[in-house]
Model the fold of this input.
Amino acid sequence: MDVREYCPDKVASTKEALSHIKNGSRIFIGTGCGEPQHLIRSLVANPIIQDAVIYQMLSFTLSKYVDDPKFLRRFALKLFFISTSMRKAAFEGKIDYLPTYLSQIPNMFASNRIGLDVALVQVSPPDRFGYCSLGVSVDITKAGLEAAKMVIAQVNPMMPRTWGDCIVHVDDIDYFVLHEEPLVEAVSLSKNQEVASRIGYYVNQLVDDGATIQIGFGHLPDAILPYLSDKKDLGVHTQVITDAFVPLLERGVITNKKKTLLPGRVVASLCMGSEKLYRYVDDNPQFYFRSSDFVNDPTVIARNDNLVSISSALEVDLTGQVCTDSMGYLFYSGIGDQVDFLRGSAMSKGGFSIIALPSTAQGGKVSRIVPHLSEGAGVATTRGDVNFVVTEYGIAELKGKSIYQRVMELAQIAHPKFREELIDVAKKRHYIFGDQLPPAQDDLIFLESYKSRVTLRNGKTIEFRPLLPSDEFEYRNFFYSLKEETIYLRFFYKMRLFSHEHAQQQWASVDYRKNMSLIGLTQKGGHQEIVAIGSYADEGTGRAEVAFVVREDFQGMGVTSHMLPQLEKIAMENGFKGFTATVLKENKAMLRVFKKRYPNAKVDLSGGIDTTVIMDFDDAAEAPSETK
Done:
């Protein structure tokens, strides 16, 4: 349909269309890369329009004018999110930030809580039925258009026609300004690729095949996407689509086949990226664009099973509070979509959220894991909303954890040079025990190679990894789950208490080199529990003493047979030539495991109730075939 033929009285020059805007008008402008650049430039250039209030979600073009005092005298800017180009203006108080959840903004327009006189939007040319597409900017743009008393649309042939609830009929637009120009491009560039790759590595461990993912605003979440390329049948339900999604779509990593809400479709509200991305979404039925009151509604999000929300933050305190929108008193970005998706993912069957952030800022000078949020920092995400926090140093799981456990989880993923300081502050605030040892100050990325997984004879899977300080509570639970006989076979006496002091002694000896402990974990409901522990300790003779304890319901399934060669490998890397073990004579099962691995092991039966076993690594048999 040609609007010049269908409704010639609505087709106007830019000057004529804008002449209908009165002084004092409340003007809504379309979002981000879909903003009508030509109309914005012309609005600013028109000196007649005075004392207007402008509402916008993400602003690019207006950032070119915020340093002009004349512009600031004529327009008051109210932004729901502060883009990078607007950050300086925000710090200088030249714009007014509106903190609110994205899912709620459309209703604020519809209810007239935020009244709108004019909407300036950009649309594609109408189809033969008279429907234009809002293209890459549906989010709050559709709601703003519907609530405004007058709508002026820039018709741009370069705006993609997208699928979904993103169309507007020409009858609902008051004035058309025909102007073709390239859309705003916004391509994220990772600031530190090494940090992004390490964070991506850990996020990859949390995201399973078939999950539906959401990626939040920002450089880091976007940079994480390439590290999900080995997954299968991922789905997408997210606020914003960026260029980083395209390779995963083209390779068939994202298929949306497993989605429980709108299967087969990428659900989104906004598109920000390059011209290549805009052409990819153009008339592509794989995409389903809808406004933020649908895409960001936590109850809608929750209809996606296994929804994994991945977003970022400026800082996280030791109790789990998250700041996303301000640096102290300076507003930096916005609440955006984080809280909506954190709460939606929490209600999703099998869903959870990940807050990913570098461990430091300002070139490593300050920690982003902090004893308390900066003075003036906004708590957009409460400590009760946070599930996983990931830095380049590992994964902290906070859901269902006490303050003591949170402190230990977060301190061990902080940058090594800040860990002791964090523990010291936590002690002063009585968050943790006064004798609590801090996490190791080493970069423990090498421990990743010590992780493994085995499928047992009964079909259950156990994951093995090194023991960490934050495991104290689960270690305690493991001890008290054991039968008296099992404890006796391990400790040679009927040990009845596993105190904090005992746990500290265990942890104090672990340096991951000369003294090492591996734990075996199995999934139970929404968390993991320890079912096995294997350790070795330096004897000072070139050998290490090794010991194991396995929960009764996992005994006889090859757990120790898997852990023994894993500990052997680590011990060999650290210069040991063999193991020794002291075993009760009645513990014949443990003796069989040692003899099977080391056929020529020396067994000394001269002791009273116990047996000494001396094992050489050169004598080791082949590891069990079920090891993965």
The mean pLDDT is 91.
